[in-house]
Amino acid sequence: MSNTDSVDAADTPAAATGFTAVKEGKALRVTITKPKRKNAIDYDTMVALGDTFRAVAEDRAVRVIVLTGEGGDFCTGADLSASADEARRGITSDMVMDAANRLVRAIVDAPVPVIARIRGAAAGVGVGIALAADLVFASEDAYLLLAFINIGLMPDGGAAALVAAAAGRPLAARMALLGERLPAPEARAAGLFTAVVPDDELDDSVQAAIAKIAAGPRRALELTKQALNQATLTSLDAALAAEKAGQTELLRSSDFAEGATAMLTKRKPVFAD
Predict the structure, then answer these.
(1) Cβ of 80: how many Cβ atoms within 10 Å?
(2) DSSP assignments along 213-227, one per residue
């Protein structure tokens, strides 16, 4: 495989339309490629992304993974515009939740460090995907947003554990219960981001981290990552299970139907419960 080459695990129809995975020396750069949807991701893309992260375990040449989004946003969560098509194909909300949880777990379990490179929004399940990474570099215009409560849902993607593990319960509750943006400087101050830099310095900052990690010993990187995760993410599996149970219930509720309709018609929702 050349210094810049596609990874076999990403050579699927779903991957081709939803993201790219390209080897650059000892780094694997994974880019969500749905800028017109602000990099919102559907079921197929979640499944293929999870497969790609799991395939890294078999490639001893990879030392670091960079996860980013094409254009001005990182990932704005699940693509609700795909829901009708997914339902016609027999894809249930349980399956979508399983795919999202598997992706988050695959990022956490990847045997090498994962760097999230964030511009613009990391929202919805995009928050969990970003914070599942080991290092998070963000531009000054970046922000985190758990807006689920605004449409009658609850956070998922492991956010309940991932936010609290880094920033504590008060901030996790603020994000989840108020559904407001957390700007990059506040996210950095809370320990959710590794670094926040001007937009024109973001790529240089990420590249410096890539170079440092790529020169390191793979097994030591793997064991260090495992120890950090075992010490800080002991509640992740429980959070993923609780989020799946709660979210699948809420997705069938009249409040979510109202919230989704209000969002699409750009009005304030009126919740019955």
Answers:
(1) 15
(2) HHTS-HHHHHHHHHH
Computed over every residue of the chain, the mean pLDDT equals: 92
Using only C-alpha atoms, the chain has a radius of gyration, in whole angstroms, of 18
Tell me how far apart the alpha carbons of residues 175 and 270 are, in angstroms, rounded to a whole number.
Answer: 21
List the end-to-end C-alpha distance of the chain, in Å, as a whole number.
56
Give backbone dihedrals phi and psi of 118, rounded to 5 degrees, phi first.
Answer: -120, 125
Report DSSP letters for 91-141, one per residue: --HHHHHHHHHHHHHHHHH-SS-EEEEE-SEEETHHHHHHHTSSEEEEETT
Please give the Cα distance from 190 to 164 (Å, whole number). 10
pLDDT of residue 84: 87
Quick: pLDDT tens for 35-58.
999 999 999 999 999 999 999 888
What CA–CA distance (Å, rounded) separates 146 from 46? 19
User: Model pTM?
Assistant: 0.92
- Would you place residue 263 in the very low, low, confident or very high pLDDT band (cuts 50, 70, 90)? confident
| CB contact set of 182 (below 8 Å; sequence gap of 6+) | 143, 144, 145, 171, 174, 175, 190, 192
Q: Is residue 83 predicted with pLDDT exceeding 90?
A: no
Q: Which amino acid is at 259?
A: G
Share of residues in the chain with pLDDT > 90 (%): 88
Q: Whole-angstrom Cα distance, residue 256 to residue 151?
A: 6
Give which of 260, 178, 225 is closest to 65, Cα–Cα: 225
Beta strands in the chain (DSSP E): 4-6, 19-24, 27-32, 64-69, 114-118, 121-123, 135-139, 143-145, 182-183, 195-197
